[in-house]
Amino acid sequence: MSAPVPPETLDTLWFTRCPVPTATGIAADRGWLAAEFAADGLAVRSLQDAGPGVLRDSHYTHALTGLFREGGNVPALWARAGGEPTRLIGLTWIEERQAVLVRRGHDLTAPAQLAGLRVAIPRRPIAIDFWRAMALAGFAGALAAAGRTLGDVRPVDIDAAPGADQWVAELEALRDGRVDAVYVKGALAVEAAARHDAVVALDLDSFPDKGIRINNGTPRPVTVHQRLLDEHPGIVSRFLAVLLEAADWAAANPADVPRILAAETGAGAAGVAGAYAWTGHPDLRLDLSGQRLELLARQEHFLRGHGFLAAPVDVAAWADPAPLAAATALVSARAGRRLVPTEVRSSR
Q: Is the CB of residue 129 less than 8 Å from the CB of residue 171?
């Protein structure tokens, strides 16, 4: 029998998020994460700002046990399927302007018209190619609105360097006539489309069926390592409580949200406004509702069917609702007593 693993010494909490709207990004901007754990002697650091010696690819692998991750579900599911003992402790659903773009003058106005077209499927040499997964899921969703499948289009592989700017390789292929349609999402896509004179043919946000928009960021998970949850459950609940409070703050202060989103996404005002029309009534709340879990399970099935996951992930078993329940109770108990730091810092 192997000896029990001794508890880790915890002196730093790490957080990471994708460059998209997240409660984590709001909380970081407000300085609330550092303020929450200052009395515990715990440093709170962003993985994006980490120096040498820190495994920055933990954003994808979640190998860093003291890490809280609020990001795309493709890497999160991939890490879990690969054997990393993470737990799902929250889900958001945030619309991010998902669209199919075409060249100006192209007559595409309905999902059924995608049939037979050449669609851009990016290919990046990275451990988990979430860009490729996003494009496949985006076109699958659009086609499903017309009762069709990916078998009805002609996928065209578009190679892009690992660190290439978002959507540029695909939009250059569109401009050059190598493909007929490109899937995009988010604020930077709005700006990239304008630079390449690409226009929206299908606005996936306009469809009432959320299933059409299941993708890397919808729903978006918050995950932690099982070891952190086992050894420091109170820390996990308190971190989640800050995220809940950040979501409440965003809902109460919508005028301040676009500035934070611009800093988080790296996009300008036009990109933020074009991608996030909901900022007048922002909703960054976390939950583990049956509906969101079912939507994520559908995404897991899709990813596994297209070879992105090494093994099945039982989404319901992966989820642990206890930390979020404890966080909700904590927020209620200290309502109106949040310690606001004297200086709000940048989220980057």
A: no
Contacts of 208 (CB under 8 A, 6+ apart): none
Q: What does pTM read for this prediction?
A: 0.93
Question: Tokens for 292?
Answer: 């969101």
Phi, psi of 216 (to 5 degrees): -55, -35
Phi then psi for residue 47, to 5 deg, are: -60, -30
Contact 24, 67 (CB under 8 A): no
DSSP 112-139: GGGTT-EEEEEE--SSS-HHHHHHHHHH
Q: What is the mean pLDDT of residues 216-226?
A: 98
CB 114 within 8 A of CB 146: yes
Looking at residue 54, its pLDDT comes to 61
The span from the first CA to the last CA of the chain, in angstroms, equals 46
- 17 has which bridge partners? 70
Q: Which residues of 95-105 are buried (b: 16+ CB within 10 A; e: fewer)?
A: bbbbbbbbbee
Pairing of strands 198-203, 98-103: antiparallel
Cβ 296 vs Cβ 315: under 8 Å: yes
> HSE-up of 180 (CA within 13 Å, CB side)?
14
DSSP state of 212: G
How many Å apart are CA 261 and CA 117, to the nearest integer? Answer: 34
